[in-house]
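queue> pop job 88
queue> type: inverse folding (structure -> sequence)
queue> payload:
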């Protein structure tokens, strides 16, 4: 009888090819991979890949796969099926793409068979699925802001949520703001590219602009600066607008703040039948895993869409949010064709 080469349920290989590989655990493999790629990646890319691959490592632990040498195509199929049950298709696609690149690196250090990456099957997604992901609805954003206005007025959380929603700026742009960038007379925020002091803008000097914030948010920001902002400077002697006791708030801390603010239990009832006192998603380290929590980018996408639905001309949104018209249409505009038509009709017919 011929030798059986199918992996058993735990994924352990018994064929001769595995003898040519060098043992490496999933957790150690991911750690080495991140260290290898870190010099070439932005901080955001490091965080994204670490988060995506953490899910794979956790699954390996559940399946008792302690050595990457033992991975098979069947294992990867099971992981794809398991992971795809709880997340949006585009999120699954991004995670599987990261896994593919990880396995390619693993092959280069003799941890898995060469070509194993090809057994990670990527689901087909339409251009619309890939371009437009989750975004916050205006009514939800307003509910969150009303709750903050009543119970946490002019707090750091209030200012973070208010600026992100009202202006639609990127997380990195919010973090780059200094106290001196806030002009209460206009009132507006001056966005500046300062790469030499670790607050670059995504599009460099082309992203520099002044953003009108309105009278209400002017007062919120002013009261935050006067009463609740930590009186600190960063490593370059600048006075950050959004701070912690240690200095300028990190991107990770801003992201966690938004994840927490968008959890329904912070302003209402939990839709997942969880009790806030015992729910694992209320822990600081797990807030991003709450099925209802949203990222800062979801706030940006929702803000852009809301501006467009309210009839704000595309060129105005493009300038305010620092995004080209083409990218805006492909990646951010969630309106239906009928909604676009109604906005055009109102502009053509006038008041």
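queue> result:
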């Amino acid at each position: 009888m011929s030798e059986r080469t199918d992996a058993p349920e735990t994924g352990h290989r018994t064929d001769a090819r595995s003898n040519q590989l060098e043992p490496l655990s999933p957790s150690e493999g991911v750690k080495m991979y991140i260290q290898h790629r870190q010099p070439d990646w932005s901080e955001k890319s490091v965080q994204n890949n670490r988060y995506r691959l953490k899910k794979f490592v956790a699954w390996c632990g559940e399946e008792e796969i302690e050595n990457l040498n033992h991975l098979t195509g069947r294992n990867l199929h099971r992981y794809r099926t398991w992971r795809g049950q709880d997340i949006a298709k585009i999120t699954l696609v991004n995670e599987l793409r990261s896994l593919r690149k990880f396995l390619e690196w693993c092959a280069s250090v003799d941890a898995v068979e060469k070509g194993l990456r090809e057994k990670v099957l990527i689901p087909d997604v339409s251009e619309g699925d890939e371009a437009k992901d989750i975004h916050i609805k205006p009514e939800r954003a307003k509910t969150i802001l009303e709750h903050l206005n009543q119970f946490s007025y002019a707090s750091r959380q209030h200012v973070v949520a208010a600026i992100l929603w009202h202006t639609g700026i990127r997380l990195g742009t919010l973090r780059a703001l200094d106290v001196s960038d806030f002009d209460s007379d206009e009132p507006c925020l001056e966005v500046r590219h300062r790469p030499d002091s670790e607050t670059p803008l995504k599009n460099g000097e082309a992203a520099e602009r002044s953003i009108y914030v309105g009278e209400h948010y002017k007062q919120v920001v002013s009261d935050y600066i006067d009463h609740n902002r930590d009186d600190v400077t960063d490593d370059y002697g600048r006075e950050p607008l959004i701070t912690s006791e240690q200095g300028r708030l990190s991107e990770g801390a801003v992201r966690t703040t938004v994840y927490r603010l968008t959890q329904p239990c912070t302003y209402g009832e939990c839709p997942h039948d969880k009790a806030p006192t015992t729910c694992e998603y209320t822990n600081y380290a797990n807030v991003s895993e709450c099925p209802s929590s949203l990222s800062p980018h979801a706030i940006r996408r929702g803000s852009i869409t809301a501006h467009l639905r309210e009839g704000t001309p595309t060129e105005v949104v493009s300038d305010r949010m620092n995004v080209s018209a083409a990218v805006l249409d492909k990646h951010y505009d969630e309106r239906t064709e009928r909604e676009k038509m109604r906005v055009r009709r109102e502009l053509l017919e006038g008041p």
